[in-house]
Amino acid sequence: MHSSARNLPRCLREFVRGSPDRHRAAHFLLPTFAAAQGTAMCGLVTRFKAQPGRREALVSLLLADVDGMPGCRSYVVAEGPADADTIWITEVWQDEAAHKAALQRPAVKASITAAMPLIASFGRQRETRVVGGYGLGERRGYAKEDTGE
Fold first, then answer.
1. Distance separating alpha carbons of residues 128 and 45, to the nearest angstrom
2. Residues 15, 25: contact at Cβ < 8 Å?
3. CB neighbours of 89 closer than 8 A, spacing ≥ 6?
4. Contact status, residue 47 vs residue 55, Cβ threshold 8 Å
5. pLDDT reported for residue 39
6. Are 127 and 44 in contact (CB under 8 A)?
7. Sheet containing 72-79, strands listed edge to edge, beginning at the edge strand earlier in sequence
8. Bridge partners, 72 (sequence order)
9. Residues 72/135, Cβ–Cβ less than 8 Å
10. Binned average pLDDT, 10 residues per bin, the chain of 149 residues
11. What is the spatial distance between Cα 96 and Cα 130, in angstroms, rounded to a whole number?
């Protein structure tokens, strides 16, 4: 059983123990109870528009150097399928302090500065309190060599 599963209520510990994939069950349930321990993950969902015809360049910039951000559990850049200029970013951070610290990193500041001329407008940013989900226990990155490109 995952070592942190001891923090779960007894009935859920038994569920994890009896699950065929104990680690996946623990990773799914543990973030749900992190909030009760005062360590809630925070999430951000942001929509914005690239300058006309500049979305591909902006996406490339947003995906550059995303590895190695301490406290980042998930960082997803997605294109809006109905609009050639819309971009969505969904982020999950260990906590709000980790996100604020990332914004102070020189590489992040440089990326933001480089991205600004490519952004036409910002939509509303939504903050969320992340309570769980698949993939949050271990951050996996995308690499071109994984696809054979």
1. 8
2. yes
3. 44, 45, 46, 62, 75, 76, 77, 78
4. no
5. 60
6. yes
7. 72-79, 86-93, 41-50, 119-130
8. 93
9. no
10. 49 56 51 52 92 96 84 92 94 90 88 92 88 64 37
11. 11
Domains, the chain = 3-37 (no CATH), 41-135 (3.30.70.100)
pTM over 0.85: no
Output the CA angle 69-23-6, nearest 5 degrees: 95
Residues 15 and 6: their CA atoms lie apart, in Å, by: 12
Contact, 136 vs 72, CB < 8 A?
Answer: no
Amino acid in the structure at residue 4? S
